[in-house]
Write a structure and sequence with these properties.
Blueprint (H helix, E strand, L loop, with lengths): L1 H21 L1 E4 L3 E7 L2 E6 L2 E4 L5 E8 L3 E11 L5 E12 L2 H6 L4 H17 L4 H6 L1 H15 L5 E12 L2 H83 L3 H18 L17 H15 L2
Antiparallel strand pairs: 1-4, 2-3, 2-5, 6-7, 7-8
Helix pairs in contact: 3-5, 7-8
């Protein structure tokens, strides 16, 4: 009997010590503990050291106030043009009211995932495949708005939703790849043709400018040549005039007639000697043998011509 009593009180003592030990709570930062007293909400314990009332208080829910990343499993969605795609993503949320997160819904994580998946299916069902792949940001923002509105009574805040993959069937992928290759080939051919066109235009413009430059150069060359010839003729004329004036002045001076007579005689004799050369033509007067008379007539004609 004594052993039974000792055993009983030993068990009671161990239980009391255990309950007293369980009343001590150390809460880390960014965590919160929901305490119930006699089955009813009592208080929320934040970071720090806390002691619960034995046999009356119990820790009902334990939450973290950090932002949580929840993986949304892949699901099959049907687009507006009846193409099945597999979509998965990640949901980012944060508890802002631990009490409502504990008593407003049974499991806020499961509810958020289910709401994200149903919203995803409904949005993709209104969009075609091309638009679905190209407008992920629109889908993400729509899902966030829908979940955030529905989760307000749950005490959570949905920050963002990110689609990880949108995977269409293999046949659709092959068709999209062929279409993309065709677009790239078409774009390259257009670029090549535009390059050839621009090259031909540039060459024709170059030929045009070259022809214009050549014509302008030829025109300027002819102008310069004509001006040079005119200047040359003018200079020769001026020189000839000065020469004639000098000769006339020399004839008018004393002894000028004798000098002219001597010069004409020398030129006549020199031309007469050239008759012996081959291919030489010269006009001579009929009385060539009467040289003194011929020279006298030439000099007299010169004097008569002088005013």
């Amino acid at each position: 009997m004594e052993l039974f009593i000792i055993g009983f009180w030993s068990i009671v003592t161990i239980y009391i010590v255990y309950k007293l030990f369980r009343c001590i709570r150390i809460i880390p930062a960014q965590d919160v503990l929901i305490v119930e007293r006699l089955g009813k909400y009592s208080r929320s314990l934040r970071a720090g050291f806390h002691i619960l009332t034995p046999f009356l208080d119990r820790d009902a829910y334990y939450h973290t106030l950090k932002e949580q990343a929840i993986d949304v499993q892949p699901q099959i969605c049907i687009t507006h043009d009846n193409v099945q795609v597999k979509v998965d993503g990640v949901l980012y949320l944060k508890i802002i009211d631990p009490v409502r997160a504990s008593y407003g819904i049974q499991d806020y994580r499961f509810a958020s995932i289910q709401l994200a998946q149903t919203t995803m299916r409904s949005i993709i069902g209104t969009m075609e495949l091309d638009k679905t792949i190209g407008e992920k940001d629109l889908i993400n923002s729509t899902i966030v708005a829908a979940i955030d509105q529905a989760s307000e009574p749950w005490g959570i805040k949905v920050n963002r939703y990110e689609i990880l993959n949108i995977v269409p069937p293999k046949s659709v992928l092959d068709a999209m790849e062929k279409e993309k290759k065709a677009q790239i080939t078409k774009r390259s051919q257009i670029l090549i043709s535009e390059g050839e066109r621009d090259s031909r235009i540039n060459r024709s413009l170059g030929y045009k400018e070259e022809a214009v430059n050549k014509s302008e150069g030829e025109k300027q060359r002819r102008i310069n040549s004509a001006e040079g010839k005119a200047t040359e003729i003018e200079a020769l004329a001026q020189a000839s005039a000065k020469g004639i004036e000098s000769i006339a002045s020399a004839i008018a001076d004393q002894g000028g007639a004798s000098a002219i007579k001597l010069q004409i005689t020398k030129a006549f004799i020199q031309n007469f000697l050239n008759l012996a050369k081959e291919n030489t033509e010269i006009l001579i007067p009929a009385d060539v043998m009467n040289l003194p008379t011929l020279i006298s007539n030439l000099t007299e004609n010169k004097k008569a011509a002088k005013p």
